[in-house]
Amino acid sequence: MTTYQNLKSASYIDKIISFTEKLLKIKFTLTGKYKYSAYCPFHADNKDSFRVYVNDKDEVRFHCFGACDKEWDVFDLIIQKNNCSFRRAQEILAKALCVSDFIPYNKANPIPVMEKKPDKPVNFTVRKEVGRKTIWALKSAERFYHNLLLSEAEKYKKIINYLARRGVDIDVIKKFKIGYAPSLGEEGVAGRALINNYMKIFNKNYNVFNWFVKSGLFRLLNVEIDNGYNYYRRYIDPSYKDGFRVNYADYFAGRITFPIYDIQGKIHGFMGRRPDNRGLRWLKQQSEDTEINTGGLLYGIDKVRGCVDDYTTIILLEGIFDYFAFYNMLQDKKLIIVSTLGTNLTDEVKLILEGLHVKNIIVAFDWDAAGKLGIIKISKAIDCQVYYLGGMRADEDPADKLKGIEDIINGFSLKHLFCAAEKIQKQTNKPIFISHMSSGAKEIIFKPDTTLDVSEIGASNRRAAPERYYYDIEGFMPHLAYNHGNKAAIDDKIQNLIKMLINEKHENPGACPQFTIFPDFIHKEIYDKLGVALILWLRLLVEQQTKRRKIKETDSTIAAWLQTSRYTIVKYKSMLKELGFLNITARKKYQTLTVKYFSRK
Questions:
Q1: Adjacent-strand bridge partners of 514
Q2: Residue 337 in contact with residue 389, Cβ under 8 Å?
Q3: What is the pLDDT of residues 547-562, one digit of tens each?
């Protein structure tokens, strides 16, 4: 009997080569015994980088020595090209090789699952240098996307309006070089605006195209291991004849681009933001296979030097829009703010803060254990004081966030603090007191009555958040089903569920049956990570909490609950498991499912 390992053995190499040529629409050239080469079908190749060889296990293997730098066996290629299961790939190859006595591999897909990486210790690392060619490519992209947004302001009016709602007006767009990369679905551009703009240069010098690839500015659409592979592969377009645009598109297609600079003003990369709340809202460039490393960069650090010298104080924020909320509040634009972009602090940050002679760090975001330890380590290393305010809610005024320490801040946006205080007074009809101190010509920046020891970091005079939010099961159950007609309908249902999670929460238990969710799941908008699998997650959460045990049900039973197919349940279960929000233990007769509130990945 022939096994799946036998099907990819060297004894079938001639038939495998013929089959692969038809599958990938390429032509191999014999270069030696059991050795072939062709132009790679997965990237713009001009050096026949796609090679075939036989390894020491007598298996036929494929390897791209070009931009892909990746290895496959023939089953990988079938799965990638046909978007099918491993079992189906075996059947396709057996038929192509005319093998009738084939025994398929019936167990789980033998492709190894990536092991969970251990938590990283709180160590400081120094970033790698960014090359001159990468800087040129990044600068070119910054200029192109920024000019496109401003020159086509009427066409991209929705983008301009969205930014305005988030506190980013035209003047701020110009000052921070914010831009926009047209989406994959935009007619005439198809998510390739940056590639289109530089096509003449790419045609003259292929190496320049590789500069942009190594700068993380282009996305290879046909990489099956990437998240969203099934989505991106739809935009592969063989109608392009240049070789660049068939399998490549702009990495930030459909996103607002925020350039990130170092303290010297040198560009190091981008953050991309969808102009809506669907899917993955924020996107960073990948460091793997590129020269990009945005980890540890501080957004806005290029604009703080003069102000921090005067104030010896810096405010650490988490997100970019948090940054602009504080930016708009600051009197005379005294920029003592930076955003960590959601990452922990590195040794480079320690050196920057030390070089700026920072004596006071205000932390205005919710940190995890690693982030807290990182800031403590920095504060001890540079001998500074740390003040913790906690994270900003979506509807919170940054001036209100500073309320409670405003009496120890002198000259810091005083006018705006008074304005915020007056606004609060009108809402509450309660007196608001603000005071500040001064001493001679120099302002006293921080002079608290009591200092906060690093061991006490995390304490706050804010009203304590509830331990859990409570939701009425009866109100949610009718919405927990996949009985939708199309993608637009399911998107609407997900958005409606998110609104319910935000608006229909209770801080105390009620009389009717309820389920609970931790506040951070809502405040940090973790629900966005789950996408369409949110419905399954919520339904399993209700089941787990009402029965107070792990879930022991078949996929067919769960499919009946949610009015969908077993295939849909399997797909979304896998998605939740991959994201770290569901534990699955397989048994002979049943499975055990445990809902996780937060991902540990």
A1: 472
A2: no
A3: 877 888 888 899 999 9
Which residue is associated with the tokens 């996929």? Answer: 555
pLDDT value at residue 200 = 92
Residue 2 in 3-state DSSP?
strand
Report the interhelical angle of 86-96 vs 13-24 (nearest 10°): 120
Return the structure tokens found at 119.
Answer: 């938590």
Reported pTM:
0.52
Supply the pLDDT for residue 139: 95
**Amino acid, single-letter form, for residue 141:** A
Domain boundaries, the chain: 4-96, 132-284, 301-456, 469-595
Decide if 218 contacts 184 (C-beta within 8 A): no
The number of angstroms, rounded, from the C-alpha of 356 to the middle of its chain's C-alpha atoms is 30
Q: Which two tokens stand for residue 525?
A: 């908008």
**445-472: pLDDT as tens digits:** 333 333 334 344 334 334 455 788 899 9
Query: C-alpha angle 532/538/544, rounded to 5°?
Result: 145
145: left (phi over 0), alpha (psi -120 to 50) or beta: alpha
CATH value of 301-456 in 2.20.28, 3.30.230, 3.40.1360, 1.10.10: 3.40.1360
Burial class (CB in 10 A: 0-12, 13-18, 19+), 247: buried
